[in-house]
């Protein structure tokens, strides 16, 4: 310890050139309550890094990432399926248990390390650098299919300028001397036919792609060109675009709200939404749905939040940002669901009235065959619920109980209970409601522009997580960001052509289930465990306190250490059990039936799914064991400088073991310089014996200067 005591009060000049970074060492301070732990803070000049133009740009970028398509077409479906207003209870609970803690964790660690996710996890511990690789792979896979959804929105937007709307009526075909509607459209509906036949031109199964649909390939090309143009200069370019992608959807939602609540039937839709079915809360799947929805809606584990936070100033109040973002996500999801249910209520009532008109027209054709006392019953929309039950038994007697071939069962409640999610909600159900609105072209343009803004905002954030990680690697350090971004977008476009085939929607579902959903859950579990138990929850809490001037309280501590890891672990286990108990299926559209039929994925597709799943999981254990057994270098390929804060016991064994940095055997201060002439690490070693035990780890060390 004498060496450390002599060095503690020194402020040496290390003999570096004038262009090099000069370092001053502050005295060591011993914290008695940590069992002999010694903390050495080394102030190092920060490397210049891009920064947000303003705090507003950062917040809007987070809003664009978190408030995506899932808030508009996934959340309303879950509310409809999982007990109406009762679903808000588990959703809010899961937001508190996992959403806010993980959001603050990603913002805090990115802001502290000032690196992308690849650099952050290497900096925390090279053994866990695979987390950054896994999140990069998953983000890339999600970006591949997410941009296809944007391409679909472009196609519908372009068709929304046609009058009448092409999905408002069935196309016709010549049968002999007659012109009749296409049979497939008659069997389904106008909006379903336009989606399955004229937009994606769906094949019968995932094994029958039937070639690339050129119109969708053009829309996908446009989507990737737009993404490249908006993110090619990083946050300097995307930071400007988010003013549109974040704010425009709210403007459209407000306009839709003003119109939707005045529609006939809106009250029935809102009543259906807010009527809670508390018995659903006893179903564990409802809680699983709530946990997963919170997870995906906040954009956790993509690496994008870490990348965004790395461009923040060190003193930014990331805790306040995390709380605000969780609140705005809950508000947006609820507000969008109100809009959706008001419009769906209007559609349900419109279909209910069409059903009644259909039945009364059929009734008129057989009226003379009914008993005399029933012929004078006047059936209208207003008295249908009272009069139809009296007439139906007599009608059934005439048709010998086969009236289902001629008469329909009319019910507003059944219409509202027809759950639809994702593409079914946006491109089939909601477009059917838009067709019924006066000025349908305007509402169609507004709706698909809103979907575009939501989709592009999330896509920018997802790809920023990929580009930032690549740009932080030494191998790409000298490549211009515009070129690197362009190459990534071009590769993504070429791979994405598989989604433009007849089996494109089936491939998208496969990627979404196995690359996007499962992979992110595993990554989030490793993130919270590494921060809490490798980096150290106390150390992370100290970092937050230094940045915002306020120490996170008991709630945050309990979440990070126990409750959030346990919650995510339960999600992981439940997801695995669910997959084993329920073999994956997909809705394959059958032209002859004019409807989708659930089918099991073929064996080869399950191999692809398994590969996608492993792509988001395997990098973590592979990197861990390769570095554990010294199969690869311990230094990372991240070219950004970092600030090392060395904590060590009096024996320094913990310091040597944790830092994974090369050292010399003389027990002196050692400074490592990169080719960019800044300090990458500072090590103080007092035990020659410890150094000898660790000498095997110095094979990958770069040259150093005392």
UniProtKB/TrEMBL annotation:
Any one GO molecular function term: glycine transmembrane transporter activity
Primary localization: membrane
Pfam family membership, one: SNF
Gene Ontology CC entries for this record: plasma membrane
Topology relative to the membrane: Multi-pass membrane protein
Transmembrane portions of the chain: 58-76, 88-109, 130-158, 212-231, 243-266, 286-310, 322-344, 442-462, 483-508, 514-537, 558-581, 601-626
Keyword Membrane: yes
Binding positions for Na(+) per the UniProt entry: 67, 71, 297, 454, 458
SUPFAM superfamilies per UniProt: SNF-like
One of the GO BP terms on file: amino acid import across plasma membrane
Keywords annotated in UniProt: Membrane, Metal-binding, Sodium, Symport, Transmembrane, Transmembrane helix, Transport
Subcellular location, record wording: Membrane
Entry keyword annotation includes Transferase: no
Protein family according to the UniProt entry: Belongs to the sodium:neurotransmitter symporter (SNF) (TC 2.A.22) family.
The protein, known as: Sodium-dependent neutral amino acid transporter B(0)AT3 isoform X2
Organism: Hyalella azteca (Amphipod)
Native organism taxonomy: Eukaryota, Metazoa, Ecdysozoa, Arthropoda, Crustacea
Name of the encoding gene: LOC108677003
């Amino acid at each position: 310890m004498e060496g450390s005591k002599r060095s503690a009060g020194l402020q040496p000049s290390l003999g570096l050139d004038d262009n090099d970074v000069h370092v001053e060492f502050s005295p060591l301070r011993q914290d008695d309550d940590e069992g002999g732990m010694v903390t050495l803070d080394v102030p190092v000049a920060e490397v210049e890094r891009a920064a947000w133009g303003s705090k507003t740009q950062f917040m809007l970028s987070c809003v664009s990432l978190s408030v995506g398509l899932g808030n508009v077409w996934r959340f309303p479906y879950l509310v409809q399926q999982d007990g109406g207003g009762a679903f808000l209870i588990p959703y809010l609970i899961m937001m508190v248990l996992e959403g806010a803690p993980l959001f603050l964790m990603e913002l805090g660690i990115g802001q502290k390390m000032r690196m992308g996710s690849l650099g952050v996890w290497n900096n925390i511990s090279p053994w866990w650098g695979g987390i950054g690789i896994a999140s990069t792979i998953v983000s890339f896979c999600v970006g591949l299919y997410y941009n296809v959804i944007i391409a679909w929105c472009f196609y519908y937007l372009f068709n929304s300028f046609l009058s009448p709307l092409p999905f408002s009526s069935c196309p016709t075909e010549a049968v002999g001397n007659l012109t009749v509607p296409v049979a497939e459209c008659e069997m389904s509906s106008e909006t379903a036919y336009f989606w399955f036949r004229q937009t994606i031109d769906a094949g019968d199964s995932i094994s029958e792609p039937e070639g690339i649909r050129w119109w969708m390939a053009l829309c996908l090309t446009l989507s990737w060109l737009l993404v490249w143009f908006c993110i090619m200069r990083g946050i300097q370019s995307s930071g400007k675009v988010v003013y549109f992608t974040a704010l425009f959807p709210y403007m459209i939602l407000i306009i839709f709200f003003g119109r939707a609540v005045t529609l006939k039937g809106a009250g029935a839709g809102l009543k259906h939404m807010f009527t809670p079915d508390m018995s659903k809360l006893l179903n564990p799947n409802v809680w699983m749905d709530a946990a997963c929805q919170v997870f995906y809606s906040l954009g956790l584990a993509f690496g994008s939040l870490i990348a965004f936070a790395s461009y923040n100033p060190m003193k930014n109040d990331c805790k306040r940002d995390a709380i605000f973002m969780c609140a705005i996500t809950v508000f947006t999801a609820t507000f969008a669901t109100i809009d959706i249910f008001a419009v769906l209520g209007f559609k349900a009532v419109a279909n209910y009235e069409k059903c009644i008109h259909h039945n009364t027209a059929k009734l008129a054709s057989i009226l003379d065959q009914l008993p005399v006392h029933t012929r004078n019953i006047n059936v209208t929309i207003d008295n249908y619920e009272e009069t139809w039950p009296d007439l139906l038994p007599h009608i059934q007697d005439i048709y010998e109980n086969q009236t289902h071939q001629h008469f329909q069962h009319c019910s507003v409640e059944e219409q509202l209970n027809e759950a639809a999610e994702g593409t079914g909600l946006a491109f089939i159900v909601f477009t059917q409601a838009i067709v019924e609105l006066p000025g349908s072209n305007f509402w169609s343009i507004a709706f698909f522009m809103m979907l575009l803004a939501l989709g592009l905002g999330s896509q920018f954030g997802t790809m920023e997580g990929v580009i930032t990680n690549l740009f932080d690697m030494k191998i790409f350090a000298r490549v211009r960001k515009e070129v690197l971004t362009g190459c990534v977008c071009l590769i993504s476009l070429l791979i994405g052509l598989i989604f433009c085939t007849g089996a494109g929607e089936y491939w998208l579902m496969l990627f979404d289930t196995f690359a996007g959903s499962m992979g992110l859950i595993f990554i989030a579990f490793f993130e919270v465990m590494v921060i809490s138990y490798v980096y150290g929850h106390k150390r992370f809490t100290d970092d937050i306190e230094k940045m915002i001037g306020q120490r996170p309280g008991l709630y945050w501590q309990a979440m990070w250490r126990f409750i959030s890891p346990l919650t995510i672990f339960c999600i992981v286990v439940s997801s695995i059990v669910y997959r084993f108990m329920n073999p994956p299926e997909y809705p394959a559209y059958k032209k002859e039936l004019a409807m989708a039929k659930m089918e099991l994925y073929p064996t080869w597709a399950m191999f692809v799914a398994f590969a996608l799943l492993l792509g988001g999981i395997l990098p973590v254990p592979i990197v861990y064991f390769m570095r554990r057994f010294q199969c690869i270098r311990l230094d990372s390929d991240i070219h950004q400088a970092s600030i090392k804060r060395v904590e060590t016991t009096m024996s320094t064994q913990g310091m040597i073991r944790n830092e994974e940095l090369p050292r010399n055997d003389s027990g002196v201060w050692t400074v490592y310089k990169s080719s960019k002439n800044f300090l990458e690490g500072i090590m103080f070693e007092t035990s020659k014996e410890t150094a000898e035990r660790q000498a095997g780890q110095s094979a990958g060390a770069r040259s150093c200067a005392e």
